Task: inverse folding
C-alpha cells in the first residue's frame, strides 16, 4: 500500500480485515496526509432534512457535475454506498456535527439543491482521516499492518510479463533504496497540484508516484481536467483556499475601474469599483458557480489587465458586513485569512485569485460492471485495477468518478469509497492468486534497485547549472500561464514547448546537497522530473481536446446557447444537434501512454448506461 | 520596514552530530511565513558569510496548520512555522528544532514517540469491522460532540510535549496529547465500552500520574484544545477505576 | 494488560494521600499548636507541650508514623523532583511557576524539617533543659535573626507546598476537573496558604513577643478549645 491518506488507509483496513498482511508506505506519518485539508464535508444521501433527497439525485448531480465524462456504473455504486460509509465513519467515532437532537447534521453544498453534506465542524477531512488512522493503528497494534513512514515510493518492480511484483522505495533518512516484494500493490498517492507550482494542495501533493507508475506503463487518464477554485489567497508557498461560503454570505468580488489605481480599497468610492460578477451575471451575481467565477476573474485579470497593482489578484470584499455577522457565519474561515495573510478581512477586502484545487484525472482504472444492478460489482479484482497487472490505484491519483469536474464534497466520498473498493479488489485477488511474488526471481528486484541507485547517483553527481527548485517554480509559472482556467491552442503549444525545454534542462540539474542523510534536495529533484512528465500529459491532453467540458475551457470551441431561444425554436434545435455531434466526438476518456518522446494520447469511449446525456444543461 | 529578512537557524547534520548556528538573510517581501521563507532559502542557500551551504532541512506538508508537520521553535516558542508570519516576528528570526524529540537533521525531528503513545493508550474506538452494519453510532448529545470535536482536532504536532516540564527524553511520561485522545475516546458512546483498557494503559509508569499540572500544554496548544480539562477528567476516571479494580473485580 | 493496582500508580496515590492526611493535617495542627506561644511560656510548656504529650498516650507510635510518612512523602518527592525539567524561563504562566515552586518548596521544606526536628524534637531527648522548657529554648533560637529567616522560609515553603498540594490533589483525584473549578480551587487554596502562613508567623511572633509577665490571658481564651479544656480536667484529677 503506497500512500496513507483516506484512500490508502481505507484500502489498508479492508485488506487487513480480509486477513492479508499489509505494508503501508508513506512519505511522512500518515496522520499528516493531505486528506486533512478538506474542510467542507462529505456527500451522502441520508435524507435527514425532510427534503426527500434521493440517491438517484446524488447520482445525477455527480454525473452532470462531471459533464458526463466519467464511467457511470462506478458513480452509481459510490452514491449508493455513501450512506453506509458515513455510518461506518460514525461508528469509528468521527465527530460529525449534530442536530440539537443528537443525530447527524447535513449542510448544503455547491452544485446541488438538497442538504446532503455531512460535516465535522470546518475540518471534515481531518476528522475522517483521523477516524481511519485510528482503525489502522488498532490493526498495527494487532500486528496486521506494518507501517513504513518516511519512505518514498520510487518505482514498481515488474516481472518479465510486465506484472507488478513489488516496489522499490527510498528511506528518506538514510536515502537508501530497498526493494519490497508484494503480490499486489495499490497506489493511493493523491493529487498533483504542485505541477502548477502553487496550488491549494499540500507540499507533498506532487503526483510523482502516479507519474512513476505511468512512466512504467500504467495509463494516465483525463489529465487535462484540473479543477480551479475561484477564491484562493495567493501565497509565496501555496494558495490557501477561501471557502465558497464567503461569496455565499454576501462577499462581493471587484477591482478598481481605473487600471493601476493604487488607492486604499476602502477609499475608492462605490461608483469607481467594477463589480464584474454582478455586472456580467445579474441573476446570480457573486454566487455564480465555481467555474464561472474562475473564468470571470481570469478574464478581468489576464484579458483586461485589471488585476490589483498589475498582479494576479482581485478583491473579495466582506467589509460591508458588520463584524458580528461575519464572526458567526465565517469566523473560522476569516481567521485563517488573518493568520496567514496578517490582514484583517473584517475591515479590509481580501485579495484572491483562482488556484488549482483538485485533479479529476489520474491513473486509468478499470471496474467490473454488475449487469443486474447497472452499477459496479461490489467485489471484483478488476475494480480499480490499473493497466498494469498487480497494480491498483485509488483516491485522487485515480481517474474515476469525477469526469470533467468534481462536485463539492464528493472528493472525501470518492477517496474513501475508492479506497474501500480497491482494498476489497485486492483482497479478492489475493484469495485467488496462484503465482505469488515469491516465484519472481531476485534478479527482477536487483535490476530495478540498480536502476534506482543509478538514478540517484546521476542526480547527486550532476554538476550542471540547473537548480531543481528553480525548475519547479518555472514549471509552475508555465502551467499557470498556459494550462490554467482558460486555454487556447497557441498557448498550449507554447506550454508543450516549454515543458520540453524543462525536460532537457533537468538533465543538467545539480544539487546543493549531495549527502546521504535526509537529503530533501535529492527527493525533490526526482519529483520535479516526474512532475514535468505529468505536466506534459496535462498540456497535451488539453491541446488535443478541442472543446469545452467541465473544467477544461477553450473559448474558441465554446458551444453557446443561442440567446433568447428555447426548445421549439429552430436555433435551439440546431444548437442541440451541434451539442450531440460534439459529444459524439469528445465524450471520451483521454488516455495517455508514456513514451520517451512524450505521451501518446488516444480517446476511448466509456459506459454511460446509467444516465445517457439527452439534452444540454440550461441554467437560464 | 527592513529590506531583509534575517534568520538564525540551529542546524545539525545528523542525529549524532553536534548542532551549530548559521545565519541567513533574504530580500524582504510582504506576507512571508517561516516556511515560505525557508523555501526561498533552499533555492538560494547562501549564508550571511556568502557561503553556499546545504539547504536547511525541515518538515512541512499542509501549510494550513492542520497537519502538524512543520512545528519548530520560532524565537523560542513552539508553533507551526507555516502559520508564523515573518511580519509578526522579531528579527533575526531564531529557528530551532523541537528540543524534546531526537533531531533527524536541522529542523526536522522524529516524533514517532507521539504516535507510539497513541498506540499504547489505545486511542481508537474498536468496531466490529469497516463494513456497513446499517446503523449509525448511538445518538450523541451535541454538547458532548462539541467537546469531543475540540479534542479530535489534535494534529500530533508536539507543541504541548515541547512545553511540558514532565515530558523529555529521559522521562516515561506519555505527555498531554495522548491523554487528550484517551479522554476523547472515553467520551464516545461506544468508545466508552473500552475505557477500562484505555484507563489501565495510563495508570502505569509514564501515565497520568506523571503529569505535574504545570498546565503549559493548554497555553501553547495551537488549536486551543482544553488538554487540562482532559487531564482533570481522567483524574476522576482513574480514581473511579481504581475503586472499581479494588472492589468490583 | 496493565492494571490500575500496580506499584507505580499506587505509590503516586499513596504519596498524594500521605501528603494530605498525616503530613498535611499534622502541619495544620502543628502550626496551631505553636501559635499558642503567644500566650506565654507557662501556657505553652504546660498546656500545649505537656498537654499534648499526655493527651496522646500513643505518642511514640504517632511520632513514628508521622516520621515515616514525612520520610516516605519526602523521599518519593525527591524522585518526582528528579524527573522534572522545569522551564519557567521560557513559559511564563502561573501554573508553571507554581509547578516549579512546588518542587523548590519540596526541597526547602524537606531540609527544613530535618533541621527543625533535630533542634526541637531530638534536642528534647538529648538535653533536659530543653525538655523542661521548650519555650525558652525556642526563644533563645529566635534571638538569632538568621534563624528567624530560616523559619520564615521553612514555614512559607511548607504552607505553600501544602496549599498547592491541595490544589493538585483536587485535580489528580478528579474533584476539580474543569478550568473554572480549578480557578476557584486555586483561590481557595490561596486563602488556605495565607491563613496557614499567618498562623505560622503568629507563632514566631508569639515566641518573640509573648504576653508573659503582663496580662496573662485568661483560660477563657482557650477554654473553647477542646484540647485545652481536656487538659484542665486532666490536671485537676
Result:
Amino acid at each position: 500500500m503506497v500512500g496513507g491518506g483516506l484512500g490508502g488507509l481505507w484500502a489498508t483496513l479492508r485488506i487487513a480485515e480480509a486477513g492479508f498482511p499489509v505494508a503501508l508506505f508513506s512519505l511522512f506519518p500518515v496522520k499528516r496526509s493531505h486528506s486533512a485539508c478538506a474542510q467542507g464535508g462529505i456527500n451522502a444521501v441520508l435524507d435527514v432534512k425532510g427534503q426527500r433527497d434521493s440517491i438517484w439525485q446524488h447520482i445525477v448531480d455527480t454525473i452532470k457535475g462531471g459533464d458526463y465524462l466519467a464511467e457511470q456504473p462506478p458513480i452509481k455504486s459510490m452514491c449508493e454506498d455513501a450512506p453506509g460509509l458515513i455510518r461506518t465513519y460514525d461508528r469509528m467515532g468521527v465527530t460529525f456535527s449534530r442536530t440539537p437532537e443528537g443525530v447527524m447534521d447535513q449542510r448544503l453544498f455547491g452544485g446541488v439543491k438538497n442538504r446532503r453534506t455531512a460535516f465535522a465542524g470546518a475540518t471534515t477531512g481531518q476528522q475522517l482521516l483521523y477516524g481511519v488512522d485510528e482503525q489502522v493503528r488498532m490493526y498495527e497494534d494487532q500486528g496486521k499492518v506494518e507501517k513504513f513512514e518516511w519512505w518514498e515510493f520510487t518505482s514498481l518492480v515488474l516481472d518479465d510479463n510486465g506484472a507488478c511484483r513489488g516496489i522499490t522505495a527510498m528511506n528518506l533518512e538514510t536515502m537508501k533504496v530497498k526493494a519490497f516484494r508484494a503480490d499486489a500493490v495499490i497506489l493511493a498517492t493523491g493529487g498533483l497540484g504542485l505541477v502548477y507550482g502553487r496550488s491549494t494542495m499540500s507540499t507533498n501533493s506532487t503526483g510523482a508516484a502516479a507519474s512513476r507508475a505511468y512512466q512504467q506503463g500504467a495509463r494516465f487518464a483525463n489529465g487535462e481536467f484540473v479543477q480551479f477554485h475561484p477564491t484562493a489567497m495567493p501565497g509565496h508557498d501555496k494558495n490557501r483556499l477561501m471557502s465558497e461560503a464567503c461569496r455565499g454570505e454576501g462577499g462581493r468580488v471587484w477591482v478598481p475601474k481605473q487600471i493601476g489605481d493604487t488607492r486604499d480599497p476602502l477609499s475608492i468610492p462605490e461608483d469607481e469599483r467594477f463589480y464584474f460578477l454582478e455586472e456580467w451575471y445579474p441573476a446570480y451575481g457573486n454566487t455564480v458557480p465555481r467555474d464561472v467565477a474562475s473564468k470571470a476573474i481570469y478574464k478581468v485579470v489576464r484579458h483586461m489587465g485589471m488585476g490589483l497593482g498589475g498582479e494576479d489578484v482581485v478583491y473579495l470584499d466582506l467589509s460591508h458586513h458588520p463584524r458580528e455577522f461575519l464572526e458567526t457565519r465565517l469566523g473560522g474561515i476569516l481567521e485563517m485569512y488573518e493568520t496567514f495573510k496578517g490582514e484583517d478581512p473584517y475591515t479590509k477586502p481580501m485579495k484572491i485569485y483562482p488556484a488549482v484545487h483538485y485533479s479529476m484525472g489520474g491513473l486509468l482504472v478499470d471496474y467490473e460492471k454488475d449487469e443486474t444492478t447497472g452499477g459496479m460489482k461490489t467485489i471484483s479484482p478488476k475494480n480499480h485495477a490499473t493497466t498494469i497487472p498487480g497494480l491498483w490505484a485509488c483516491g485522487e491519483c485515480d481517474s474515476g468518478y469525477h469526469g470533467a469536474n468534481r462536485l463539492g464534497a464528493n472528493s472525501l466520498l470518492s477517496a474513501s469509497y475508492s479506497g474501500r473498493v480497491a482494498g476489497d479488489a485486492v483482497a479478492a485477488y489475493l484469495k485467488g492468486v496462484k503465482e505469488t511474488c515469491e516465484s519472481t526471481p531476485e534478479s527482477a528486484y536487483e535490476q530495478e534497485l540498480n536502476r534506482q541507485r543509478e538514478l540517484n547517483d546521476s542526480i547527486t553527481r550532476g554538476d550542471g547549472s540547473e537548480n531543481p527548485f528553480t525548475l519547479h517554480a518555472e514549471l509552475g509559472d508555465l502551467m499557470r500561464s498556459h494550462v490554467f482556467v482558460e486555454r487556447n491552442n497557441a498557448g498550449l503549444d507554447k506550454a508543450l514547448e516549454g515543458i520540453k525545454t524543462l525536460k532537457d534542462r533537468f538533465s543538467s540539474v545539480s544539487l546543493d546537497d549531495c549527502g546521504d542523510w535526509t537529503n530533501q534536495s535529492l527527493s525533490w529533484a526526482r519529483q520535479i522530473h516526474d512532475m514535468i512528465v505529468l505536466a506534459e500529459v496535462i498540456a497535451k491532453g488539453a491541446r488535443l481536446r478541442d472543446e469545452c467540458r467541465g473544467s477544461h475551457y477553450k473559448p474558441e470551441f465554446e458551444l453557446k446557447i443561442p440567446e433568447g431561444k428555447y426548445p421549439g425554436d429552430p436555433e435551439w434545435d440546431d444548437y442541440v444537434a451541434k451539442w450531440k455531434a460534439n459529444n459524439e466526438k469528445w465524450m471520451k476518456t483521454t488516455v495517455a501512454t508514456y513514451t520517451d518522446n512524450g505521451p501518446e494520447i488516444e480517446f476511448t469511449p466509456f459506459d454511460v448506461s446509467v444516465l445517457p446525456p439527452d439534452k444540454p444543461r440550461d441554467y437560464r | 520596514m527592513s529590506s531583509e529578512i534575517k534568520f538564525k537557524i540551529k542546524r545539525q547534520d545528523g542525529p549524532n552530530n553536534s548542532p551549530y548556528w548559521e545565519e541567513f538573510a533574504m530580500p524582504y517581501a510582504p506576507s512571508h511565513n517561516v516556511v515560505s521563507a525557508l523555501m526561498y532559502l533552499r533555492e538560494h542557500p547562501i549564508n550571511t558569510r556568502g557561503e553556499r551551504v546545504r539547504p536547511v532541512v525541515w518538515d512541512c506538508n499542509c501549510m494550513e496548520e492542520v497537519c502538524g508537520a512543520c512545528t519548530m521553535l520560532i524565537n523560542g516558542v513552539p508553533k507551526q512555522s507555516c502559520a508564523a508570519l515573518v511580519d509578526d516576528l522579531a528579527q533575526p528570526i531564531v529557528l530551532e528544532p523541537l528540543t524534546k524529540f531526537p533531531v533527524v537533521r536541522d529542523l526536522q525531528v522524529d516524533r514517532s514517540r507521539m504516535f507510539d503513545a497513541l498506540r499504547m493508550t489505545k486511542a481508537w474506538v474498536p468496531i466490529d469491522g469497516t463494513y456497513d452494519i446499517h446503523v449509525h453510532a448511538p445518538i450523541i448529545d451535541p454538547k458532548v460532540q462539541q467537546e469531543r470535536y475540540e479534542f479530535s482536532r489534535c494534529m500530533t504536532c508536539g507543541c504541548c510535549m515541547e512545553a511540558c516540564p514532565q515530558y523529555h527524553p529521559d522521562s516515561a511520561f506519555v505527555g498531554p496529547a495522548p491523554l487528550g485522545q484517551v479522554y476523547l475516546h472515553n467520551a464516545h458512546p461506544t468508545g466508552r465500552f473500552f475505557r477500562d483498557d484505555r484507563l489501565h494503559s495510563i495508570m502505569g509508569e509514564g501515565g497520568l500520574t506523571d503529569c505535574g499540572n504545570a498546565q503549559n500544554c493548554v497555553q501553547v496548544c495551537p488549536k486551543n484544545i482544553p488538554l487540562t480539562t482532559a487531564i482533570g477528567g481522567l483524574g476522576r476516571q482513574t480514581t473511579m477505576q481504581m475503586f472499581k479494580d479494588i472492589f468490583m473485580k | 494488560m496493565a492494571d490500575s493496582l500496580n506499584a507505580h500508580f499506587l505509590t503516586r496515590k499513596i504519596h498524594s494521600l500521605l501528603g494530605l492526611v498525616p503530613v498535611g493535617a499534622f502541619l495544620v495542627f502543628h502550626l496551631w499548636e505553636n501559635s499558642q506561644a503567644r500566650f506565654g511560656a507557662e501556657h505553652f510548656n504546660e498546656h500545649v507541650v505537656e498537654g499534648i504529650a499526655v493527651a496522646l498516650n500513643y505518642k511514640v507510635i504517632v511520632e513514628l508514623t508521622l516520621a515515616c510518612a514525612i520520610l516516605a512523602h519526602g523521599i518519593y518527592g525527591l524522585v518526582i523532583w528528579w524527573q522534572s525539567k522545569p522551564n519557567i524561563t521560557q513559559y511564563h504562566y502561573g501554573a508553571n511557576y507554581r509547578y516549579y515552586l512546588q518542587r523548590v518548596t519540596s526541597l526547602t521544606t524537606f531540609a527544613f524539617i530535618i533541621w527543625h526536628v533535630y533542634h526541637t524534637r531530638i534536642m528534647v531527648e538529648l538535653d533536659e533543659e530543653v525538655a523542661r522548657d521548650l519555650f525558652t529554648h525556642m526563644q533563645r533560637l529566635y534571638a538569632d535573626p538568621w534563624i528567624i529567616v530560616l523559619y520564615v522560609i521553612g514555614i512559607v515553603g511548607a504552607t505553600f507546598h501544602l496549599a498547592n498540594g491541595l490544589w493538585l490533589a483536587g485535580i489528580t483525584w478528579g474533584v476539580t476537573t474543569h478550568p473554572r473549578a480549578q480557578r476557584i480551587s486555586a483561590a481557595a487554596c490561596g486563602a488556605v496558604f495565607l491563613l496557614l502562613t499567618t498562623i505560622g508567623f503568629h507563632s514566631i511572633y508569639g515566641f518573640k513577643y509573648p504576653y508573659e509577665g503582663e496580662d496573662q490571658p485568661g483560660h477563657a481564651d482557650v477554654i473553647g478549645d477542646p484540647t485545652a479544656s481536656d487538659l484542665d480536667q486532666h490536671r485537676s484529677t
User: Anything to note?
Assistant: The first strand of chain B starts at residue 4 and ends at 11.
